[in-house]
TrEMBL record:
It comes from Photobacterium gaetbulicola. It is a single-pass membrane protein. One of its GO terms (cellular component) is TAM protein secretion complex. Residues 913-1248 form the Translocation and assembly module TamB C-terminal domain. Transmembrane segments: none annotated. It is found in: Membrane. GO terms for biological process: protein secretion. PANTHER family: TRANSLOCATION AND ASSEMBLY MODULE SUBUNIT TAMB (PTHR36985:SF1). This is Translocation and assembly module TamB C-terminal domain-containing protein. The keyword rRNA-binding does not apply.
Length: 1249
């Protein structure tokens, strides 16, 4: 019994050791290492770089590889984590399976083993059942690249989870991202389609398909899928929710988003019997030209008997309904298409439209019937109502009815075509009462006719066309039109031996006609005649006559063509005309071209071109021929003589023996005989070096070297001794240009390379003079030399220039742009050295002194559209003065400094009264948000605008600018000022807001061009105590503050201006302004007035105060008469006008007459001014003068510049007074008065404080 005990202990120990060993293998790193070692021993092609973890607690492998003759596999990392607790359930639970960095390649299939070659069982698998469930919580496949037989697929990320229990598989939400698929190129070897055994015409029998698993796809998402190709196809997103069980497949949701369209669909299908199915789909189309269209599709029934309903919505509107049997060999079908609107082009204004379209078709590929009805219209065609009825098959088609309603008439006919053996067709067409004038108003008429045709291909490889009957008759443009004849043409053998035969083909329209008769076969015998004495009867806009004939005769291998055509008084509307045109001659086109042709014309006109005579002669054969052209015309005449020879298999070569071109720039003559040619095989033209020159030592345009031009070539051109005198006809009358110029250029080009261009322009000493005004000196700019050089080489432009200005500075620079066809980079420099501005003085006629100096050294580098600027621009020593200019400048210096994308501005302007300081800066680093700022400040600078204005201003302004807004802030003080406005005529009125200005083409001229940004202002204007105003009878001092603002509502003014010590003349009297306020609270043209003006107390009796009170808006003021003490209006008015009350000593009728006269004359100014303008008298006005009993009515006006005439008559006495005043100079007049007393006075006008 001891051995039994010992044996049991040994067995238990052995089992314990085995358990410990198995546990160690499954739960310690040693186990995974042993597994890796064993796998590598079994598979020598397998390699594993490193391993971590244990078999059941999770492990990872790095750098796994497998390589043999047909498979290459590498895996950067593989991680597997199994939940061991599930093994007791029993179940397999994989919490994580992650694979990354997979590279798999199988360029060819591995050789098949004998076991693989054994015939597999033909029984399909209909059920799969797992004995234990499998749970996969997380599956990650990242950075995967597969290449199987040249088909490549790669993706960035794949994540899913799944579970399978029994025969049910559930795929959890899945994401597949960044997929690229590239299919292998198709094999060039043809593959014969295998014919299934027992296949016959009985139709296709669908197999029953049973899916061995019940599959649920909760959500499967694909993002950024690309199918490589030309062009590449992409899918932005695909999302699928579906299930399958047995033979049933249900797609609950399928959404696809691609650049071309977006799809939303749901479907179900049973893979048994006839495959019953139901499908609903909607497609939003994004692809041009049918973007913004929607396609809705419904399919029901089964694959064997399918019912379709499809509709397109959008610009195109169509619906297709039908039934078809795809499994039947003959494909039976029944379809109907209905559309209310079709058009082309689809995405723009249509050229063609079809409405109320109905198409029905029923039958099979063996035979079907169809009908079509539609209304078609379009820009290049008249409206058409069409009806087609026919039948057809895969071998032929027949139109039994063709009916078209158009242009007020009808077209009917029938046609058939067959292509069973050889293509053939035949047709017949009748039309009646077609009225082209309904569409083309210039061609009214009524036509009827008949046409029969047939044709086809021949067994020998040729063709034939028969037109046995062609008849058209009717009226067009009130002229009888007849077209009749027959025509046949063929090339039976297909060897180019075309035969044409007509017994007569004649077209007659009114007096004009064309006819042809004859045969072209082995022997040519055909005559075509044209007799058109009045083309205007047949073609609107065309005029003249054409008479003549063309005869074809001789053998086909050596035919002769005689041409004799004469045209007279030809013309097209008012655009072109030609008195005579003649074409005569003989042509033998085969076997060797030989011709003797002459074309002459005379009396032609087109636009600014006038043809006096033209003669074009061609004579000779291919081997030797001559072309002579003589044209006498304006503005260009020419005489050319060309001799050449043609080798059909090689090319043409010749010599330009004579050349002369007479232009407005002179006569240019060819200096030598010049060889020219063209090679057919190389498509290469050649021209020898030559010149077109004027007289000796004058302008010449030369090709300096022999040139060849084709796909590649090179040309050297020079233009020399071009005297600017020849440009005189093209210059304005007040511009004189002296000097000459020379240009040299070299151009080269070749396939697949950028062109090469090198050019230089040289101007020796010269000048340009402009005479702006005969009374001032002309502006003259001279130069010692001007050079400009440019070169385009290797996609790079390099250029430099120098302008050496005579008695002035130099302007020089350079520029480099590279590359020209890509992201262009700029590198440029501009220098201006001691450039004086004095030459501009004649242009500034108001200045008697003007001078200054400009210096610049600026570099521009970076992208062409956004370069950086560095350097300095300096304007210095500017002096400007004049008698009529606002400001005299003793010295001005302004400097702009550029630093990349920033600039700073500083300057000082010195005037006789003080300095004006200017500062500023700018930044354009961001072109969309550039900014600039300018500051201007000074102290009591005098600004004069004679004779209107003289003020002293103290500005302190800041101006800011950006793409969206310009802002002006600060203040302007006016401590002193004198404002004088001369009296305007009563007829002066502002321009109406309804005025519209027109340009030369009678189109409105845009007078108020919008500012491209908003303007915002906030400026305080301070009017000091020493500002005087004299205007329209008002003399007063001004004082006050105004705030000028502007925003999106427009310019607004806020503040108050007071009138001090004012005197105003009204109703022929002087009124003292006792109170004067102008209040601004909004738009500048709508101030509020509060003014009291009384009669001068020194000129009024009884110590009475009487005057006018003006209140209210400026455009509708209220005027009241007041007095102190209070009294009736007529008494107060008498005090204002006469200075005394109404009394018995003065007839009240006289006082009222004076009042009414003054008020009436105040309202008649515009009428009187208009009358004066009509008779040539300027500023004619009607007014009153004097006071009391001495009141006069006066009429005055200017009958010549400075000469005024005035005539007055007393109201209460009839004594006339005549006055003549002449202005000798400013403020100095001589005046002669003739009346009760006569006098001659010398008057001088001045003012003082």
């Amino acid at each position: 019994m001891i051995w039994v005990k010992r044996s049991a202990i040994a067995l238990l120990a052995l089992l314990l050791v085995l358990v410990i060993a198995v546990a160690a293998l499954l739960y310690t790193p040693a186990g995974i290492k042993v597994a890796v070692w064993g796998a590598q021993r079994v598979l020598p092609s397998l390699s594993i770089g490193a391993s971590q973890g244990s078999l059941l607690n999770g492990f990872s492998l790095q750098q796994v590889g497998y390589n043999d003759d047909s498979i290459n596999l590498s895996v950067a990392q593989l991680a597997l984590d199994i939940e061991d607790s599930c093994l007791l359930t029993p179940a397999v639970c994989i919490s994580n399976l992650a694979v990354s960095g997979v590279r798999f390649s199988m360029p060819e299939l591995p050789p098949a083993s004998e076991e693989n070659q054994e015939e597999a069982s033909s029984e399909p698998v209909t059920e799969i059942h797992l004995p234990i469930p499998i749970f996969l919580s997380r599956l990650i496949l990242d950075d995967i690249e597969l290449d199987v037989l040249g088909n490549k697929v790669a993706w960035q990320h794949f994540a899913t989870a799944a579970e399978m229990q029994g025969e049910r598989l559930v795929i959890k939400p899945t994401e597949w991202q960044k997929i690229e698929l590239e299919l292998a190129s198709a094999s060039a070897e043809p593959v014969e389609a295998a014919t299934p055994e027992g296949a016959d015409s009985g139709g296709i029998v669908l197999p029953e398909v049973i899916i061995p698993l019940a599959i649920d796809i909760e959500r499967f998402t694909v993002e950024d899928f690309t199918l490589q190709g030309e062009p590449a196809q992409t899918v932005k997103k695909l999302e699928l929710v579906a299930s399958a069980s047995g033979s049933e497949i249900v797609v609950e949701r399928l959404e696809v988003s691609a650049p071309q369209a977006a799809l939303n669909a749901e479907a179900n299908i049973a893979l048994t019997g006839d495959y019953p199915l139901a499908l609903k789909a909607g497609v939003a189309i994004k692809m041009a030209p049918i973007e913004n269209h929607e396609l809705v599709l419904n399919a029901e029934g089964s694959v064997a008997n399918l019912t379709l309903d499809a509709q397109v919505k959008g610009t195109l509107d169509a619906r297709l309904k039908g039934r078809l049997s795809p499994l039947e060999p003959a494909l039976p079908f029944e379809l109907s298409l209905n559309s209310q609107h079709l058009q082309w082009p689809i995405d723009s204004e249509p050229d063609f439209e079809a409405k109320e379209t109905q198409l029905t078709a029923k039958g099979s590929l063996e035979g079907y019937n169809f009908s079509l009805n539609s209304q078609v219209d379009g820009k290049p065609m008249p409206a058409v109502g069409a009806e087609l009825v026919g039948k057809g098959s895969l071998e032929d088609i027949e139109l039994s009815r063709l009916a078209v309603d158009t242009l007020g008439g009808k077209v009917s006919g029938s046609a058939s075509a067959s292509w069973k053996e050889l293509v053939s067709w035949q047709g017949e067409l009748d039309f009646s009462h077609i009225q082209p004038g309904l569409e083309w108003q210039d061609v009214p008429g009524d036509l009827s006719g008949k046409l029969k045709t047939s044709g086809g291909l021949t067994p020998q490889g040729g063709w034939f066309v028969e037109l046995p009957e062609l008849v058209v008759d009717g009226v067009v443009m009130e002229q009888q039109l007849d077209l009749a004849g027959q025509l046949s043409a063929n090339d039976i053998a297909g060897k180019g031996e075309i035969q044409l035969d007509t017994q007569g083909l004649a077209l007659k329209h009114g007096p004009n006609g064309f006819s042809a008769k004859g045969r072209l076969n082995k022997t040519w015998d055909m005559v075509a005649e044209i007799n058109a004495p009045d083309l205007s009867q047949s073609v609107p806009g065309l005029r003249g006559s054409v008479l003549g004939s063309i005869q074809l005769k001789g053998k086909m291998t050596e035919p002769d063509m005689d041409v004799n055509l004469v045209g007279e008084a030809l013309g097209w509307e008012s655009l072109a005309s030609l008195e005579t045109l003649t074409l005569k001659g003989n042509i033998t086109p085969m076997p060797v071209l030989d011709a003797d042709l002459s074309l002459t014309a005379a009396g032609g006109r087109y636009d600014a071109f006038t043809l006096k005579e033209l003669s074009l002669l061609f004579k000779g054969s291919e081997k030797r021929h001559q072309l002579t052209l003589d044209m006498n015309a304006e503005p260009v005449s020419t005489a050319l003589r060309l001799q050449g020879e043609l080798e059909r298999d090689r090319g043409w070569r010749g010599v330009l023996q004579k050349g002369e071109i007479d232009t407005e720039l002179g006569i240019w003559k060819l200096d030598r005989s010049t060889a020219i040619g063209y090679r057919f095989d190389k498509q290469l033209a050649s021209i020898a070096a030559h010149c077109w020159a004027q007289d000796k030592d004058k302008a010449a345009l030369c090709l300096t070297q022999n040139m060849t031009a084709g796909a590649s070539g090179r040309a050297n051109v020079a233009l020399s001794n071009v005297d600017f005198e020849m440009l005189e006809p093209y210059l304005p009358d007040n511009v004189e240009l002296n000097g000459s110029a020379g240009v040299q250029a070299e151009v080269a080009w070749a396939p697949k390379s950028a062109p090469y261009v090198k050019a230089s322009v040289n101007l020796p000493a010269g000048s340009v003079t402009q005479q702006q005004d005969p009374d001032v000196d002309p502006v003259t700019v001279g130069w010692d030399k001007v050079t400009v050089n440019a070169e385009v080489k290797q996609d790079t432009l390099n250029a430099d220039w120098l302008f050496a200005i005579r008695d002035n500075g130099d302007l020089s620079g350079r520029v480099r742009v590279a590359p020209l066809t890509g992201e262009q980079q700029l590198d440029a420099n501009l220098k201006l050295d001691r450039f004086m501005l004095g030459f501009l003085k004649p242009l500034l006629m108001d200045y008697h002194t003007f001078d200054g100096q400009v210096d610049a050294d600026i570099s521009v580098t970076g992208p062409v559209m956004h370069p950086a600027v560095n350097g300095l621009l300096k304007i210095s020593n500017v002096k400007a003065s004049g008698r009529t200019v606002p400001v005299d400048v003793d010295r001005a210096d302004i400097t702009a400094t550029f630093s990349g994308y920033q600039a700073r501005l500083s300057g000082e302007v010195v005037t006789p009264d003080g300095k004006l300081n200017i500062t500023g800066d700018g930044d354009w680093q961001d072109l969309a948000n550039w900014r600039g700022q300018l500051g201007v400040n000074g102290r009591e600078l005098e600004v004069t605008v004679p004779p209107l204005l003289a003020v002293k201003v103290t500005p302190d302004l800041t101006i800011k600018a950006s793409p969206q807004q310009a802002e002006i802030t600060g203040s302007v003080a006016i401590p002193w000022g004198r404002i004088t406005v001369d009296q305007l005529p009563e007829s002066a009125v502002s321009v109406s807001d309804d005025e519209i200005l027109l340009d030369d083409d009678l189109q409105p001229v845009e007078t108020d061009k919008p500012i491209p940004f908003n303007v915002k202002t906030n400026v305080l204007v301070r009017i000091g105590n020493d500002v005087k105003l004299s205007a329209f009878g008002l003399k007063a001092g001004l004082v006050g503050d105004l705030n000028v603002r502007q925003d999106e509502k427009g310019p607004l003014v806020y503040g108050e201006v007071n009138l001090r010590n004012g005197i105003y003349r009204s109703f022929a009297q002087e009124l003292v302004i006792r109170k004067g306020q102008i209040l601004f609270n909004g738009p500048a043209d709508q101030p509020y007035l509060s003014i009291e003006a009384i009669r001068n107390p020194n000129n009024i009796e009884d110590d009475v105060i009487a005057g006018l009170r003006v209140t209210g808006p400026a455009d509708e003021p209220r005027v009241d008469i007041f007095s102190d003490p209070a009294m009736p209006q007529q008494n107060a008015l008498s005090y204002i006008l006469r200075g005394r009350d109404l009394d018995s000593e003065s007839d009240s009728n006289d006082a009222m007459a004076t009042t009414l006269l003054s008020m009436g004359l105040a309202q008649s100014g515009q009428l009187v001014g208009d009358v004066g303008e009509a008779f040539g008298v300027q500023d004619l006005s009607l007014d009153t003068a004097g006071t009391g009993d001495d009141t006069q009515v006066t009429i005055s006006g200017y009958i010549a510049p400075g000469l005024q005439v005035k005539y007055g008559v007393g109201i209460f006495n009839s004594i006339p007074e005549f006055t003549v005043r002449y202005r000798l100079m400013k403020d100095l007049y001589i005046e002669v008065v003739s009346g009760l007393d006569s006098a001659a006075d010398l008057l001088y006008q001045f003012e003082f404080n």
